[in-house]
Write a structure and sequence with these properties.
Blueprint lengths: L6 H11 L7 H6 L6 E5 L2 E4 L4 E4 L2 H4 L8 H13 L12 H13 L6 E5 L2 H18 L7 E5 L8 H6 L3 H4 L9 E4 L4 H4 L5 H19 L4 E6 L15 H11 L3 E4 L14 H5 L5 E4 L11 E5 L1 H7 L15 H16 L2 H18 L7 E7 L2 E6 L16 H11 L2 E2 L1 E3 L2 E4 L7 H24 L3
Parallel strand pairs: 3-13, 5-6, 5-7, 7-8
Antiparallel strand pairs: 1-2, 2-3, 4-10, 9-10, 11-12, 12-15, 14-15
Amino acid sequence: MPRNHDIAELRRLDIAHHLPAQADWAEIEALGGSRIITHAEGAYITDGDGHRILDGMAGLWCVNVGYGREELVEAAAAQMRELPFYNTFFKTATPPTVTLAAKVAELTGQRLPHIFFNASGSEANDTVFRMVRHYWKLKGEPKRTVFISRWNAYHGSTVAGVSLGGMKAMHAQGDLPIPGVAHVRQPYYYGEGQGMSEEEFCDACVAAIEDKILEVGPENCAAFIGEPVQGAGGVIIPPKGYWPKVEAVVRKYGLLLVSDEVICGFGRTGRMWGHETMGFTPDLMPMAKGLSSGYLPISATAVAAHVVDVLKTGGDFVHGFTYSGHPVCAAVALKNIEIIEREGLVERTGRVTGPHLAKALATLNDHPLVGETRAIGLLGAVEIVADKETHARFGGAEGTVGPMARDACIANGLMVRGIRDSLVMCPPLIITTEQIEAMVAIIRKSLDEVMPKLRAIQI
């Protein structure tokens, strides 16, 4: 049973001492403190006031197997009793760490057979950053340092992660990006492709990558990095054929190709990996979130043999973290993968719940505020517009429309995320079709409730 917390005291302490991630601390203080989440089960979370909320975000894109999995608790406890911690610095490793590396390599079909462990997706991308640059130096091409990325991409919150990402608001905090990262347009057809067919827009986005490579100079370009589907950018699903064409350009100029699978990995798109869904093959692949379903912090960077063969010629790779390959985290990740495979959650997402989410969201297209719905696997988005024909947005402060609709959804019992003028969702892979229907019903109700407020600020 959940503990009997003093919620008022926790909120007071939250304001007095706790600095939440990616938050407006003054706003939280004005609200009287954070919403305190006390317990969860299946696809639902419960807050300190007793509100039961359908978790349409799977925590933060991560709780793929749902909440309350006793097997994961037991796996952690058993490993803690046997060996709670040891590092991988001293020519040492632990059984669950080595076993997990072999399992992840198996899940890549041995295309990426070498695994470097970290504690977060941001760290996994930092690892990519250093590996790629070191690789080119060892190859005798030290000028190849520049990463090509996309505007509105998200690759983490560390200095390197923010720089690789393309979110200008994040760049503004810390005088980023650091040198050596160039950005190109994102494949956001609904928002940026008006006046073009989807194929024309796709080709324009791919041409922008090639143009940037030529501008920087192929001899200076190290890698292209991208999420198969941009998650935190607003669930931006690229046009059909985009990724194979991107890969062709990348291979033409000899860059490495990085698929950021932090969100898309472990079944989120209906295949084990997002790059499988999108039809391309990366050289490096950072992953996190679904690796342990968020039960413990662990991430990994999977690397192709031809990259590691070069890195092996350079002596020590002087990079890593205290918790790289943490045995308890690795044990939980192994059990998590076992659950995913045993229950067929990837296949279920691809064949049943993913298509159902797309179909259910499409019923919102008749709503006066909905410009577009889109989904792939168990990733979805609802675009909120003032005018369906022109795609015109509402007035007011930028980024207020999505959060306004999000707050209404939460009040009505659904946790989703508001990103700019959209609602995005990423429910646990264990969600039922009935729960998907409930999600969409709450979204419709919430849009009805916020419509008068939005019309009041209409352009």
